[in-house]
Every structure is written in structure tokens, then in C-alpha cells.
Amino acid sequence: MAVVSTHRDEQALTLTFVAEFAASVDRVWQVWQDPRQLERWWGPPTWPATFDRHEFVVGGQSRYHMTGPEGEKARGWWTITAIDAPHRLEFEDGFSDENGEPVDADDPIRMTVTIEPVESGTRMTTVAAFASTDRMEQLVAMGMAEGMREAMGQIDALLARQEVRKGTES
């Protein structure tokens, strides 16, 4: 089912994405925890991600880059600020320089992911919070909302492949 709604709240300076999946909470949690699975969906289809580092602990650092259709690279970073497995993840996200070092650490996007069971499987709500209207507008103009929808739209196929693989191993 993937993304079922998006909401832009200019007062709260947030973008919210709600997605639902026909998979367990634990299984959906894995797409965040495992860097190889994260790479299969974090970037939009035309900008796939590569995680060079993914320390999935509070205080852990992640470094990644997305590669565009012409080979160009957009680099990013995360600092994980809270984990309540398998239901909640919080991290700061931003752009990096060529060496993977944050260039906007004083103005990160604060991401909060909640994962909860629903009748059809699992609901994942991802909220991106911005420090200022200017920052929010800059990232929306760069295509963040569309990119996140496209990226999250890849999770269903990833979950299905993993479930098929799991089913064939027994």
C-alpha cells in the first residue's frame, strides 16, 4: 500500500508521511535498521542511496550518498538521537561535504519515525521537522516531499522480496 497520505504543516514546520505495509512491525523496523535494506529505498528510484556508515545506536552516525542519473552525488548524514525498537526512531538529517562531514549540523532536519500495528499490517509515520520556514521552503523546492514519497514507495517491493525469500528458505 505504501504512502497513504502526506501533510505539510506550515505552522508546525513539518512534513508528515504516513505509509502502510502488509508486514509486521518488526519487519518494517528492519528497513531502517539494516543499511543494505535502507539503501534499497532511502533515495528516490532515480537517486539510489549508498550507506558508507550506519551506526544504529543512540548517538550513532550514518553517512550516505545518493547517486543521480548522470553520476552526480548528493551526500548526507544522520545522527541518531533516540531508539525505542521496534516502534520509534529519531534522528537528525542533513547535507554533507565531499568527505561526508555535515555542512548544516546547526540546522538539521529532525526526523521522527513511528511504527505501529494496524489491522492491515503496519503503519509507519515519518515526520520531518524544520527549524525555520526558510529551511522548509528550501527543501520542499528541492523536491524533498516528492522524493520521500517515491522513496517510501519502494518499501512494499523490498518487503515482498524479503518475505518470498524467507518463505523459500524453509
TrEMBL record:
> Which CDD domains does the entry mention?
SRPBCC_CalC_Aha1-like
Record-annotated Activator of Hsp90 ATPase homologue 1/2-like C-terminal domain positions: 23-159
Q: Which Pfam families match?
A: AHSA1
Membership in a protein family: Belongs to the AHA1 family.
Q: Which InterPro entries match?
A: ASHA1/2-like_C, START-like_dom_sf
Q: Per its record, how is this protein called by name?
A: SRPBCC domain-containing protein
